[in-house]
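Chapter summary example.
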Amino acid sequence: IALGGITGHVTAVDLRASTVRGFDGVEALVPNSSFLENQVVNWTYSNPRIRREIRIGIAYGAPVHQAAEIIGGCAADHGQVLKDPAPEVFFEDFGDNALLLALVFWVELGPHLVSRRVDSDLRYAMEKRLAAAGIPIPFPQRDVHLNVSQALPVRLTRAPDSPIGE
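The structure predicted for these 166 residues follows.
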């Protein structure tokens, strides 16, 4: 559930309060009145399946279709990513520094599944397989274009604290 800034599993329900164990392992006692007075998001009420999404950028000029196949293959090979619905890769946008792809996949929540672990596993696999295929994951960079249609004036100056003659 998610309630008032707490997200986790309900581990006990008593007469006056319920215990919610957060994903960080911390337990919180939540007054049962909070369940009536606040909005409660029950992640597994009717279906324990949730959709996850990982965005990744590849370098301009890289083979987009090949990158999408590699990223999709990482999800297909992961044992906790559901086969139905099948994972999908979308060419999301032309970013400032990269071509942006989004991997959309589904997992089934349970006591032994940590969705963050699945996300991390997939990122490790994507980085490794993309590198092996020679497809770089870029970092922010800028190209500077200098118009030199006219001569550029050059002036030498001395640093304010340097002695004369150096």
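To summarize the output: The chain has a mean pLDDT of 90.
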